[in-house]
Amino acid sequence: MLINCVAYKDGHKLADIDVEAISDYVERGDCFVWVALRDAEPAELAKMQEEFGLHALAVEDASRGHQRPKIEEYGDSLFSVVKVVEQHNDELVVGEVDIFVGPNYVLSNRQNSRQDFLGVRARAEHEPHLLKQGPSFVLYALMDAVVDRYFPLVDAMESEMEALEERIFSKSAQRDNIERLYALKRKVMTLRHVVTPMLDAVGKLHGGRVPSICDATQDYFRDVQDHLFRISSSLDAIRDTIVTAIQVHLSMVALEEGEVNKRLAAWAAIFAVLTAWAGLWGMNFKSMPELDWKYGYPMALTLMFSTSYALYRRFRKAGWL
Amino acid sequence: MLINCVAYKDGHKLADIDVEAISDYVERGDCFVWVALRDAEPAELAKMQEEFGLHALAVEDASRGHQRPKIEEYGDSLFSVVKVVEQHNDELVVGEVDIFVGPNYVLSNRQNSRQDFLGVRARAEHEPHLLKQGPSFVLYALMDAVVDRYFPLVDAMESEMEALEERIFSKSAQRDNIERLYALKRKVMTLRHVVTPMLDAVGKLHGGRVPSICDATQDYFRDVQDHLFRISSSLDAIRDTIVTAIQVHLSMVALEEGEVNKRLAAWAAIFAVLTAWAGLWGMNFKSMPELDWKYGYPMALTLMFSTSYALYRRFRKAGWL
Amino acid sequence: MLINCVAYKDGHKLADIDVEAISDYVERGDCFVWVALRDAEPAELAKMQEEFGLHALAVEDASRGHQRPKIEEYGDSLFSVVKVVEQHNDELVVGEVDIFVGPNYVLSNRQNSRQDFLGVRARAEHEPHLLKQGPSFVLYALMDAVVDRYFPLVDAMESEMEALEERIFSKSAQRDNIERLYALKRKVMTLRHVVTPMLDAVGKLHGGRVPSICDATQDYFRDVQDHLFRISSSLDAIRDTIVTAIQVHLSMVALEEGEVNKRLAAWAAIFAVLTAWAGLWGMNFKSMPELDWKYGYPMALTLMFSTSYALYRRFRKAGWL
Amino acid sequence: MLINCVAYKDGHKLADIDVEAISDYVERGDCFVWVALRDAEPAELAKMQEEFGLHALAVEDASRGHQRPKIEEYGDSLFSVVKVVEQHNDELVVGEVDIFVGPNYVLSNRQNSRQDFLGVRARAEHEPHLLKQGPSFVLYALMDAVVDRYFPLVDAMESEMEALEERIFSKSAQRDNIERLYALKRKVMTLRHVVTPMLDAVGKLHGGRVPSICDATQDYFRDVQDHLFRISSSLDAIRDTIVTAIQVHLSMVALEEGEVNKRLAAWAAIFAVLTAWAGLWGMNFKSMPELDWKYGYPMALTLMFSTSYALYRRFRKAGWL
Amino acid sequence: MLINCVAYKDGHKLADIDVEAISDYVERGDCFVWVALRDAEPAELAKMQEEFGLHALAVEDASRGHQRPKIEEYGDSLFSVVKVVEQHNDELVVGEVDIFVGPNYVLSNRQNSRQDFLGVRARAEHEPHLLKQGPSFVLYALMDAVVDRYFPLVDAMESEMEALEERIFSKSAQRDNIERLYALKRKVMTLRHVVTPMLDAVGKLHGGRVPSICDATQDYFRDVQDHLFRISSSLDAIRDTIVTAIQVHLSMVALEEGEVNKRLAAWAAIFAVLTAWAGLWGMNFKSMPELDWKYGYPMALTLMFSTSYALYRRFRKAGWL
């Protein structure tokens, strides 16, 4: 679905143009065309391929979707895949934005994503001194918008981790904790598999040999990569913490089990002693003098409860009870 | 076993040719020969070595089989080993395709694999504008076909992983879960040991210094490598998830054991109290006044069951029962 | 908030100058200006940007804060972010110092940090032979001060680790130990996430291609990096030790549980034997000759206690009791 | 001990020569000398050093033994250490072959190894077209022979691993399994510590800058390295599998313990109920009407066994019994 | 404390010289000065800095101590820190040797180390053909002596590891084993943190770009690095083994616990049966015909012991007893 198709000159909007007219504007050389698609049909992509002269392999990747984040050079144009990640009902949903950038055009195709990028275009149109840097600035602006949307996800994960940490050392809801740790790990990994290849890809747009389109905007891409580094190191920290937390959880479970065992053992001992005394005087020997004593029974009761109590005190002191 | 032996010119089939005639066509220089073998005998390979002038070490590797995936340069020709992986009855079976590529020929030998590559040839013959790029395009087409067959395997592994994840947190079939996690890990490792070296090998066919044969088809090989990257990162994700799942599994088992222990302890306590009361009044002291009371027995029963019930309530509240 | 604004010439203080006058001094070329800010407001930063001609992206990073440690080149000037870490009540608090360095100026902005850097300026002013090396020496002096403050944190972590190690092998306070190990791990990770990127960043200031400003002061930055390496390897050692300690802790808990189990089993056995004897003679069979014996009861007691004692000795020998 | 000392020209044996004559042949320039030693005495090595003009450090390494696998250049000659690994009685024994290669000579010294390399010489002498490539071909042939002897060891380890995998999931012989896993891990590590440095070393003999002696035989060394890669990745796979197997083993032990615990708990419950009933009617209250009923006893028995049976059925259904 | 101060020419000792005279000899250019200090005071170091013209940063590092092993270039001189490790009472004590090397001098300062390096000087003076290679040979000789002292430590660790391995699979002294494994891990890590940075540092003295002082002695430093590699890979092997051993230990503890549990369960079952029988016949029902039988009691005893024995046999067969 076509969303926008606009020609820009010196950072200012020239006109909304027709799809048919794209190739004319692209050939003029003094302006550039910025087209935004959403969940484009093969036919639309084919039309765009024709108008912009896109490389067959890039178009094939874009129409198939489910690519890794990447930036590929085809002659003097770039094909870039970035991933948008959105949280719907405690699940991370991964969508994709495919961006074709040439000397005189930018074509973006958003797939499987609810959030649009209209704000990026609006902001760019308000900053003509930046927009006049051309298509590579648009590429930067789109990437920056995508990456900025990762931060709240990472923040949410960090909060979740902190909430879980407090619960690990309490004794309740252990089963729930481990399930939530596991779910958090999955989310971290989903985001990491989006961020890590993008980090490599953006790294090719500044520093050493850089595609000629991006030569003048290197500092911007270094900035994007820096944001990705920050996200990546936060994710690594969470991941590392989860691993430790699972280990610690196991230790805590073992410790608690040990405590329950000790308490069980202590009570078992106390009742075993009681039962032993009772069994003793429940025997049917003819000649058991204490049974005939007048105060035999109270004495027996005293003995039973005092041995029990002595044991109880001892276990209490040892920390078993 | 010889499957096909065809000469092509400008992307179009010239003729099915005789093995004897191969060297003539190879020497013509305006066409190329594409030979497909299957589980070739040493004699067949020797014949091919003679016709194509293959390098002795490459032929030795091909006749021995069980090589690592690799791409080796011998002068201006390439020797490439790729692995085909097929699922037979819940087992991954690894076969091999050895591909010799020279300026004017492609020779492939498929070993220990049920699936053929006739479709690759058919598709290539329908796209003469691509096929006329020569032997390196055929190499790409074969590799692409091999790699495309990895995707359904990875998808199946991901589904299996998801199925297992749901079961880890349920209490049933723990032993089966751990066996299936282990089996899945093995499969992931089998595929990884096929994909990782291939990733390195294909990386040599685009980017920096590239064998001269593949110079014009670099973008295709970058595409293959990109697919391999995608597979590789999916495999890494599954592998990482399995490791966590095994840890979590251990925690779940420990948790469940702890719960069983607590329940056991609770019931043991309840019955220990009952038994202690019964033991008390089972003693044979002469003078135990309560034994002679009229409502001694009902009173005793009430006491026994009310202490039991009080304990039961308390354990219930503590979550032990 | 402006803290200082001073111009230096040949290592000696020229004058405290007005913010307005900064650009005049910067343009003179024979002196340099060193400005220190604290938690600067956007307006202050904008003023500084104008006076020093700072790059927009760098200023944006500085005003947003929460950057990774980094050193970025913008033309012939540097933008550097270093992190200060302070311990407040058993928590590590991470602040930030943003440093802009140009051929004739240094501008530092300290954020979220209690400790000032007045000492750095004082020391520098007492060593004019060093200070006359210009802005890059100031950059070094600030970095060195920041890094020197990491050492006591690392020392405290090492002491904590040693204290914990002694406690792991004792039987007490296991739950507390594991909590403290976990908390220590968090601290180590916090510091590591500050040190590691800084290590990479400082590495760019000596050795290979070096920003021209730092050319003459390379040895100083090598020294800073060397300190960071030392901290980093200490942190790695602590981290590695914590991982092992958690594993060992789990082993110790399992061992102790095993010992409790054995003791429980031993006592249970002893009482089970007693109870069995008592049960035997508590049966109501008419004809049980031993019940009528004169010394039946003492004999029974002897038997009961001697079997118990024999068991006790045996368990003692086996190390269960 | 001297084993052979032969001069070769154009790939054909010239003559068995005297040790004294070595230097004469080495200086001729149109032939090369291939000497094989075994567990050479210092005196023999000193003699060889003199005849061949070997470097002092290399000779010192060779006489001390216990080197890491390595290939070192000394001027235009090479000193190579490779490790031979042999299985004696379920133990891996590591021996060493030190090889000195110069433009006109090869000197090998085999230490602490039972297997000889006579076959290598025999085969080389039967292939003069290969042998005439000179000393570097001999180096290749020796290395290839050494590496080929690693494969059966790896195969044996893989078989052992497969045998162990089947046993982990059975309930028997757990202690033996874990001991065998541990022993296997040791073997894998022994071989890995032989293979990994050799991989690095051989990598220097092909590809980038190559010692001039090996220039013409690069493809052969690439082949050796490829074999080493194959072994190395097999070893990594086994090692990875062992780690998982130990984890899984622990899970299996915990699971089995849990099952035993449940069964124990179930039986304990059944007997506790029985004992409670018996205790009830063993009390000595005067007025317990059911004791006087005619069918009191059979009724009691029925009650006791039916409650027990009901519990038994319930535990059976829950999978505890 | 000054230990020696000697001037050498052409590998032969010229004279023991005065500290004051050092600068004269250093300036002569045809000889070199080798000074050895021990735990030098700041004043001594300042004196040396003056005589030799040492770099301020290097002297500062040397006077502070506790540096990482490193080799740093300051103009045409080197500053090298190596660590000496000594075993005192089952503890590893880490000392330090700081070595300053210039074209005409070597200055070593040993700190916190009991062992001296007099032997190195003695040996060097007996080999003038080597010593005449100048200060870089002395640097090599000192490093070689330091590294040679690591080997017995590694050997002791390997022996300790082997001793521990045999004990893990026995059932005794589990707590002691885990403590010793932990202590061994600490020692391995101490040595590793000494060896790893030294490996990197020495690597800069041979191969690619080498400080001009060491140009002629590269092969020696390659030899030192090779020794360090050997030590490093041994340490890695021990470390890896310890990790596995701790895991295995946990498995063994769990296994043993499982066995104790089973035995406990078996005995509990046997006595529960006995107690149940006794409870049955201890009930006070009026009409219990078997109680009145003449052989009721012997029959009961027979029943009790035969059921117990049957259970005993069954548990024995199942391996629980």
TrEMBL record, chains A, B, C, D, E:
GO terms for cellular component: plasma membrane. Residues 154-181 form a coiled coil. It is found in: Cell membrane; Membrane. Keywords: Cell membrane, Coiled coil, Ion transport, Magnesium, Membrane, Transmembrane, Transmembrane helix, Transport. The keyword Signal does not apply. It catalyses: Mg(2+)(in) = Mg(2+)(out). It is a multi-pass membrane protein. NCBIfam families: corA. Belongs to the CorA metal ion transporter (MIT) (TC 1.A.35) family. Mediates influx of magnesium ions. Alternates between open and closed states. Activated by low cytoplasmic Mg(2+) levels. Inactive when cytoplasmic Mg(2+) levels are high. This is Magnesium transport protein CorA. The gene is corA.
